[in-house]
Amino acid sequence: MIGATGRLATMTTIAFCGLGQMGAPMARRLLEAGHDLVVWNRSEERTRALVEAGAEAVRTPAEAAAGAEAAITMLADPGAVREVVLGDQGLAKGLRDGAALIEMSTIGPDAVWEIGEGLPDGVGMLDAPVLGTVPHAEEGTLQLFVGGHAALVERWAPVLAAMGTPRHLGDLGAGAAMKLVVNSTLGALMTALGEALALADALGVDEDQALDVLEGSAIGVTTRSKRERIASGRYPPNFRLALAAKDLELVRDAAARAGVDLPLAEAALGRIGAARDAGLGDLDYSAVIPHIRGRPATG
Q1: H or E stretch including 21?
Q2: DSSP per-residue string spanning 210-235
Q3: pLDDT value at position 241?
Q4: What share of the chain is helix, strand, coil (3-state, %, to 5)?
């Protein structure tokens, strides 16, 4: 499955599929780094800004892959990645011998391995899910958890570095596994903050004083990052709550397959899933806090 492993030229042609909140600024970083960029997105209007900046938009992932040296996917869930890579008009239909697929969505290692098995002979694959939110994507300061053959990682390091700091963690699937490890903590932290503030409400503790103290505690980073939203009641999304619920479902499923009991992650999924089902899915995942407190939240 491993393709050519020679050093990558500074400029290359990249197909980028998935121009959502994170994908669009990541693709722009590649364009600004001087790479030729071919883009595809299910909603065509999301390609327009990149086309104005110099990218080429095409109608199908297969068209995007034709002539590309690498294809990048940044999509919502495993089903979307399977369709975009392995579907009738998928990237696998256009990727040529020596090209690579760089899968940057959060889909878990099982889906990564399945997709890798479906690629044509001679097409390499890396998984490189990211840690960070929209501002990090815009600044090119994402953390990239990379799994795959070391020579392939070295070859594509300049492309990955345009979007953030890559960390090679092992064979294919290692990056996807690490992303689940990290994401297993995010829901627990946010729901813990929500429950702490709900307790403060019940005990008559002033919100500002509670937040001041929590900022100096072990949950300080989370508190500081979301304090403005908590104060305003507005939760514009950096990381959509619906995606946080999906990620925690992946954590739950991976843990079940591995025979690991994760009651804290399961409880966090229950809280965030309930907030999603209450209509908060398009808000920032910190909107679970007002949901726990029984307060309104807007975008």
Answers
A1: none
A2: HHHHHHTSTTHHHHHHHHHHHHHTB-
A3: 98
A4: 55, 15, 30
Place of tokens 């908590």: 230
Furthest-apart CA pair in the chain: how many Å? 65
Q: Residue 196 CA to chain centroid, in angstroms?
A: 27
Q: Which helix (H) or strand (E) holds 202?
A: helix 174-203
**pLDDT tens, position by position, 223-264:** 999 999 999 999 999 999 999 999 999 999 999 999 999 999
Q: Does the structural domain 178-293 have CATH classification 1.10.1040.10?
A: yes
Closest CA to 119 of 101, 146, 98: 101
Supply angle C-alpha 291, 293, 294, rounded to 5.
65
The residue whose two tokens read 């883009």 is 39
**Both tokens of residue 235?**
């939760």
CATH number of 13-172: 3.40.50.720
Catalytic residues: 179
Decide: helix, strand or coil at residue 125: strand
- Boundaries of every domain in the chain: 13-172, 178-293
Q: How confident is the model at residue 213 (pLDDT cuts 50, 70, 90)?
A: very high
AA identity, residue 82 = R
Closest to 269 in 3D by CA, of 240, 229, 241, 295:
241
